[in-house]
Write a structure and sequence with these properties.
heterodimer; A: alpha/beta; Rossmann fold; six-stranded mixed β-sheet; 9 helices; 10 strands; about 25% strand; B: mainly alpha; ABC transporter involved in vitamin B12 uptake, BtuC; about 70% helix; globular
């Protein structure tokens, strides 16, 4: 497994934390992504919109390293990560959530949030529980409270409802204290009240955190985003601030029209 | 089951094992129970990998055998098979465990990227390769095996000492594994079991964790293999062929492959059935002879799989839960709920473990 990292000039690194250049991903004959160029500035809140199958999650998978792009380069915090495996990327400050929850179903909420931290803390291989683990567990419980899972902190994930699992997904990303947070449809399957709380939670995030958000719910997405890119069929069809996107006719045609503009 | 109850049972069982030589017959202690504890130790490496790492390994008996063959090669002298190095018995132990751990690390690294059924098949392949290796490479053994291997002189004439060493090492392993699974490494391993993709995106090197867990389980199997060669005095490739390989997995399944205790409980049932089945009342009339041993064990496994996927330990837990429910009447529901939770938190998917883990295969 290659883990070498080339360091480009630091001048480049200052104005963006995510830089994608001509990213292409092909699954057999299907081009899931085609020539994506994208820069995200530090602290920016970027919403990625698009109909199902547009390539949004594939884009996240490329940034997080779950998929190696067929073509193009991924630069995170000024380092070329195109060949860096996914497990090496949290060290650069990347944390993500999954559209379909990926949690440790036989472990408790606290255990899940503890593991979310240890990945970056380099405590994977320790054979004894130390003071540091106790403080990480303490923090895990704090994060559980932040995502309204305080009463469920000792329950196993098996016993959580769908909404609670979604809350824990976001907790997993929060617990990692990332610089770049990728949220993949955090509001899917949530009730109106839960979406409201979620929007508040996202708005209350540390402004230093760069946020990329995939969201079908236009209200949530346009409320929290500074900038929006709209994807369709593996390419970016529109970029702009939320107001520009609302009034873009092409976006209406391919996305809002079909999705009903909720 | 709450934790104190579990500890109490564990302490009681250890007390019985320690006192056993005072009232048990020499045959029962030195043959039946020593074999039970050795097989339990070997099976615990399967349970550890399966329950906490999500890896059902068929290579554990191979590693057990490698340790045995290495001891045989190292201590053997003129006249016996193998390398005939004639080393000191304790040096041989260090050598055997070093080789076993090295092989386990290599095999673990090779299979670390597979999961579910593919991992199972790969480890089965290791087992078959190992069998033919020791059968055909006569430098190390040959199909006839290595015989006349002596345990270190300290054990000579004191078979009960070997029994005690087996018990002590089993207790150390059991306690050690229970501590290990709560350690940062153990927690990470359980994360890898539940969702390797998530673990990677959290910054864990999944392949490294799997490799280390497999290596550690190989060490446990190797320790059991050394004890076995001291107890048995001989080893041949047939003892690590597919039949015995499956027997060790069956021991783990009978006991309960999601509970560590199950390894030793399963070994006890297996060895007892092996030795005393014909003494059961009416056993002769219905044709239960040694020749029917595999049929009986097969039926037992079938029953376990259908009725209690978490084995005999699961049966005991259910009886205990039911008994608590009867005693406490209505007030016991919360108790039952906590029982349930601790049992799952302790490593147990409630269903049969294999289907749960094959889920991983589809993730890739």
């Amino acid at each position: 497994m290659t883990t070498e990292v080339t360091t480009p000039t630091s001048i480049e690194a200052a104005d963006h934390v995510v830089r994608l250049r001509s990213i292409g991903v092909a699954f057999g004959g299907l081009r899931a992504l085609d020539g994506i160029d994208l820069d995200v500035a530090p602290g920016e809140r970027l919403a990625v919109l698009g109909p199902n199958g547009a390539g949004k999650t594939t884009l996240f998978n490329v940034i997080a390293g779950d998929i190696r792009p067929t073509t193009g380069s991924v630069v995170l915090c000024g380092r070329d990560c195109s060949h860096l495996p996914s497990h090496a990327r949290p060290a650069l400050g990347v944390a993500r959530t999954y559209q379909k929850t990926r949690l440790f179903s036989n472990l408790t909420v606290e255990d899940n949030l503890y593991l979310a931290q240890t990945g970056r803390q380099r405590r994977h291989l320790a054979l004894f529980v130390s003071e540091r683990d106790r403080s990480l567990r303490e923090r895990a419980r704090e994060v559980a409270h932040r995502v309204w899972l305080g009463p469920m902190v000792d329950a196993t994930v098996d016993g959580l409802s769908h909404g609670q699992r979604r809350q824990l997904e976001i907790g997993m990303a929060l617990a990692a204290e990332p610089d770049i947070m990728l949220l993949d449809e955090p509001a899917s399957g949530l009730s109106r009240g839960e979406r409201e709380r979620l929007s508040e939670l996202i708005e209350a995030l540390d402004p230093a955190i760069t946020l990329l958000l995939i969201e079908h719910d236009m209200d949530v997405a346009l409320r929290v985003a500074d900038r929006v890119v709209v994807m369709a069929d593996g390419i970016i069809i529109a970029r702009g601030n939320p107001d520009e996107i609302r009034s873009n006719t092409l976006v209406h045609e391919v996305y809002l029209g079909r999705e009903g503009g909720r | 089951m709450n934790r104190s109850w579990r500890d109490l049972v564990a302490v009681a069982v250890v007390a019985i094992l320690v006192l056993l030589p005072l009232f048990g017959s020499a045959f029962f202690v030195e043959f039946v129970m020593t074999r039970t504890v050795i097989l339990g130790l070997a099976a615990s490496s399967i349970v550890f990998l399966s329950a906490y790492g999500g890896m059902v390994s068929l290579a554990q008996l191979l590693l057990f055998g490698i340790a045995g063959f290495m001891v045989g090669n190292a201590v053997g002298e003129a006249g016996s098979k193998g390398l005939k190095l004639g080393w000191n018995a304790w040096v041989a132990v260090v050598f055997a465990l070093a080789v076993t751990v090295a092989v386990a690390a290599l095999l673990g690294a090779l299979s670390a990227r597979t999961a579910g059924i593919y991992f199972l098949m790969l480890t089965l392949t290791y087992a078959v390769i190992g069998y033919y290796f020791f059968g055909q490479v006569t430098t190390f053994s040959g199909f006839g095996g290595i015989t006349g291997i002596d345990a270190p002189p300290w054990f000579e004439g004191h078979p009960v000492r070997l029994y005690y060493v087996c018990v002590v090492l089993s207790v150390v392993t059991y306690v050690g594994l229970r501590l290990l699974v709560r350690s940062p490494f153990g927690m990470a391993l359980q994360g890898v079991r539940d969702d390797p993709v998530r673990m990677a995106s959290l910054g864990f090197n999944v392949a490294l964790h799997r490799t280390l867990a497999f290596t550690f389980a190989g060490f446990i199997a190797g320790v059991a293999g050394v004890l076995n060669i001291w107890w048995n005095g001989q080893i041949d490739p047939t003892s690590i062929s597919i039949g015995p390989t499956l027997d060790l997995l069956i021991i783990a399944v009978i006991g309960g492959i999601v509970h560590l205790e199950g390894a030793w409980l399963g070994a006890f049932v297996y060895v007892m059935a092996n030795n005393y089945m014909r003494n059961l009342p009416f056993a002769d009339t219905i044709g239960l002879t040694e020749a029917r041993f595999n049929t009986v064990v097969g039926l037992l496994v079938l029953l376990i799989m259908l009725l209690s996927p978490d084995g005999l330990v699961g049966v005991i837990l259910r009886i205990r839960t039911a008994a608590t429910g009867l005693r406490g009447d209505g007030g016991s529901t919360s108790d039952d709920a906590s029982d349930h939770q601790i049992a799952t938190a302790d490593g147990g998917p409630k269903g049969p473990p294999v289907p749960t883990h094959t889920r991983e295969g589809s993730i890739r």
